[in-house]
Amino acid sequence: MALNLSDRHAWVIQSEIRNMSIECDKVNGINLSQGICDTMPPVVVRNAAKEAIDIGFNTYTRYDGLEDLRIEIAKKQKQFSKMEVDPEKEIVVSTGSTGALFCACFALLNPGDEVILFEPYYGYHLSTVIATQGVPVYVKTNPPDWSINFDELKKAITKRTKGIIINSPANPSGKVFKRWELEKIADLAIDHDLFVFTDEIYEHFVYDGRQHISLATLPGMKERTITVSGFSKTFSITGWRIGYAICDEKWAKAIGYFNDLFYVCAPAPLQMGVAKGLLEIKEEYYRTLSEIYKEKRDMLCNSLQKAGLFPHIPEGAYYVLADISKVPGKTSKERAMNILYKAGVACVPGEAFYHDGSGENLARFCFAKDDDILDEACRRLESIKF
Does the structure show a pLDDT above 90 at 357? Predict the structure, then answer.
C-alpha cells in the first residue's frame, strides 16, 4: 500500500486570510487582511498569566477549563447578556472560539447533516462543518444592511437540516442581528428542531447605539443554542487561544470530551490570566472598547472612500467590506493583490466569503490595529485613488 494523505485532507484548505498575510509579508506591507488585533492586552491579564507561570501553574486543568474561569464567564454572561449559566455543567473552555465550535460540531453533527450558513460567511465556520462531514447550505444576506430573506431561509431547511450557524456581530460583514431577526430564526429552529451555533466573539464591538443580543436568551432557545465566544478580540490575545462554548448540560459533557480528545485543555496559565481580567476589569473597559474601535472604523472607512474603494459601514466587529470594482483585475484575488502591490496594504478578496464566486467586487479590511499603523495604512490607501 502506497503512503498517501487521507481523503479528509481535501476537506480543509489554507484560508485566503492566511494566504494574504503571507503575501503581505513578502512585500513588507501593512496587514489589514488578518484579524490579528495587535493592540496591547490589558495589564492585569498579562500580569496574571505571568504570575501563574511563575508560581508553577503550568499543568493540566480539568478538560472543561479552570473553575475560576468558568465562574467568571458565567458572571460575564449574566452581566452583559442576562443569561443564567451554570459554570459547573454548562461551560466548556476550549482553545479559542474556533476550537469550541469544532468540538461542538463533532459532538452534535452526524455525517450528512446539513448546516445553514449565512453568506458572506467566516471561512473557519465553513471548514468546521466540512471537516466534521456536515453538508453546508448557503443563504445569502443582502447589502447594504446584509438583510436576510426569510423565505429563502425557510426553503433552505430540509429533513436533513441539523443546525444553523449565526455570527453576530458578523465577520466579515459587520452585521449585528436585530432582535426581530433572531426571533424569526428562533421560531424556525424550534419548529424544525434545530441546533443554532452562535459565534459571539465580537459581542463587545457594536457601534452607533446598537445592541448585541445572545440568541440563547430568547424563549425556548437555551436548550438548542450553542453559544461560542472567547477573549482573543476583547483582550487582544489572539495567540493565547482561550475560548468557550455555553450550552445545555445535555450537550456540554460530550463537547467537553471532544475538547479533551483534541486539545486536552486550553493553556493553564493563560486561562488564569483571563480569569483575573474578567474579575478585575470594570464595565467601563468594554464601553470604551466600542468607542475606540468606532473611531478606527470611521478612520478606515473615510480613507477607503477617498481611495475609491466604497465601504459598507459595519454595525459591529472590526472589519469593513468594501466595493473594489474600480480596481483593475478579473477576480477579487487579482484586485486584492493589485491593492497590495500599489498601496502596500493587504486585504482579503471577497470570494473567500462566498461559495459560488460571488464577492468578486468585494474585499475585507481589518481595522484592529494600533493607531500609528492604521494611520499609515489609511495614508497609503488614500494615495492610490482608483
Answer: no
